[in-house]
Design a protein that fits this description.
single chain
C-alpha cells in the first residue's frame, strides 16, 4: 500500500512540474490561461459569452454613437483572468425610446404611421342608378337648409267628461216615479222626455226632460219609487267633446303655456290633437303633479271618459342651420349617415346629430347648408349597399 501511494505522489509531482513549465507559453489549456486567451467566462455553459460581447462591440454600428460615448468608454478597464489591462469599453448603440413599455421602439410606430398616413383606399365606391331606377325607387334630392326642431316630452293623461257639456237631472219636487222612457246609452236630444213623475203634494203629473243633447251615462230610478228633489236621476253627456287632464311634473311647470299644442296617443296608437286651455296653479297632494287640461273635439272611442292616454308636448324648440327629414338619416356600421350625390354615385357621409322631433333631425356637422343630399329613398340606398357588400368607408382618408 505504501508503495502505491509513493508511485501516485511521484506522478502528481511530475504533472505539476510540466504545468509549471508550459503555463503561459500559449500551449496551456488550464482555466486561467483559457480566460486570458478567450477573455470569457469559464463556468460551464457560459464560455465565450463575454468574448462574444467584446467581438460585437467592435462593430461599427453608429459613428455618432462612438463619438458620443468614446470619452466614457476610455475611462473603463477590462479585467481578464488575473491580469489587468486598460481597454476601451464597447461602443454603445443608442437604444430607441420605448415610453409605453410594450417592447416596441416608439420610432418604429411613428415610421409605420407615416408610411400609411393620408393614404386613401381608392376612389369612393358609390351606388350608381339609371334614371329608371332613380324614378322607381323614388329618390328625392334636396339642398340642405335650416329649420325649426322641437323637443317633446311625454306625460300621462286621463280622459274625463266635459262638465261644461254634461247635465245632471233631478226632480223638481219630491215625487213618485210613474214611467221611465230612457235607458243608459241612449242618445237623446234637447227636450227629449226621460221619465214621468207625480208631485206628492199636488198629485200633478209632469215630464222630466233632457236639458241638452247627448248620451245617457247614468240612471237611478224605477217605476213607483219615491224620490226626493235632491236625488240624481239621470246624467246626460255630450261625448263629442271631452276633457284630457294631463299630469305634469313640477319641473316642467314653467315651460307650459296656454294655447300650446298637445298630441295625445291612445293605447292602440290612435292619436288626437288638442290645445292647453287650463293650467292648475295647485299641485295635487296625492300625485304631486299639477293639471294641464285640453278639450278634445270629436274624439274617437279610444278617447272616451275613463281612458288613460299619453300626452306629447313640445316643450322646447331651436332654429338649426341644417335640418333634414328623419328618413334621410340612416345607420351604417354604427354611424349616422346621409347619402349625397357624387360623380361616382350616391355615397354615405357620416353626420353628427343634434335635437330631433317626430319628423326632423338637426345635423350638427357632416352636411353643410346648400349641400345636396338624399331626402327620400335613403333606406333603399342603404339596403343596396349592405346587400351588395360595398364598403361604406371606401375612399375615406385616415
Amino acid at each position: 500500500m505504501k508503495n502505491v501511494l509513493m508511485v501516485f505522489g511521484l506522478l502528481l509531482a511530475g504533472i505539476l512540474v510540466v504545468e509549471a513549465q508550459t503555463c503561459g507559453t500559449g500551449d496551456c489549456e488550464c482555466a486561467s490561461c483559457l480566460a486570458k486567451k478567450e477573455g470569457g467566462f469559464t463556468l460551464p455553459g457560459l464560455q465565450g459569452l463575454e468574448k462574444q460581447e467584446n467581438d460585437h462591440a467592435g462593430h461599427d454600428h453608429d459613428v455618432q454613437a462612438e463619438e458620443t460615448f468614446a470619452p466614457h468608454a476610455a475611462a473603463h478597464q477590462h479585467v481578464a483572468g488575473d491580469a489587468c489591462c486598460p481597454v476601451a469599453a464597447p461602443a454603445v448603440e443608442p437604444v430607441p425610446h420605448d415610453h409605453d413599455g410594450d417592447g416596441i421602439p416608439d420610432h418604429d410606430l411613428h415610421d409605420d404611421h407615416d408610411d400609411h398616413a393620408g393614404h386613401d383606399h381608392g376612389p369612393v365606391e358609390g351606388i350608381k342608378l339609371t334614371q329608371e331606377m332613380f324614378d322607381k325607387i323614388g329618390i328625392e334630392v334636396r339642398e340642405a337648409a335650416g329649420g325649426t326642431v322641437a323637443q317633446s316630452s311625454v306625460f300621462p293623461a286621463e280622459i274625463k267628461l266635459n262638465r261644461d257639456t254634461s247635465a245632471s237631472i233631478s226632480p223638481r219636487y219630491a215625487s213618485i216615479v210613474r214611467a221611465v222612457y230612457a235607458e243608459i246609452g241612449d242618445e237623446v236630444k234637447k227636450g227629449s222626455v226621460l221619465a214621468s213623475l207625480e208631485n206628492r203634494e199636488t198629485m200633478a203629473v209632469y215630464k222630466l226632460t233632457a236639458p241638452n243633447a247627448g248620451v245617457i251615462i247614468s240612471k237611478d230610478l224605477a217605476v213607483g219609487e219615491v224620490v226626493g228633489d235632491d236625488k240624481l236621476l239621470f246624467e246626460v253627456a255630450d261625448l263629442s267633446s271631452v276633457w284630457a287632464d294631463i299630469s305634469v311634473f313640477p319641473q316642467y311647470q314653467h315651460l307650459l303655456r296656454k294655447g300650446m299644442p298637445v298630441n295625445f296617443i291612445a293605447r292602440d296608437g290612435c292619436v288626437a290633437d288638442g290645445q292647453i286651455k287650463y293650467i292648475s296653479p295647485i299641485i295635487s297632494h296625492e300625485t304631486r303633479t299639477f293639471t294641464a287640461r285640453c278639450i278634445l273635439q270629436d274624439a274617437r272611442d279610444d278617447f272616451t271618459p275613463g281612458a288613460f292616454v299619453r300626452a306629447k308636448i313640445k316643450i322646447k324648440s331651436i332654429d338649426a342651420a341644417v335640418v333634414v327629414p328623419r328618413e334621410a338619416v340612416q345607420t351604417l356600421d354604427g354611424e349616422s349617415v346621409v347619402f349625397v350625390p357624387s360623380p361616382n354615385g350616391f355615397i354615405p357621409e357620416v353626420v353628427a346629430l343634434g335635437l330631433s322631433d317626430d319628423r326632423h333631425v338637426e345635423i350638427v356637422s357632416g352636411l353643410e347648408p346648400d349641400e345636396k343630399y338624399v331626402a327620400a329613398g335613403a333606406f333603399t340606398l342603404k339596403a343596396q349597399m349592405v346587400t351588395s357588400g360595398m364598403d361604406p368607408h371606401a375612399g375615406h382618408g385616415h
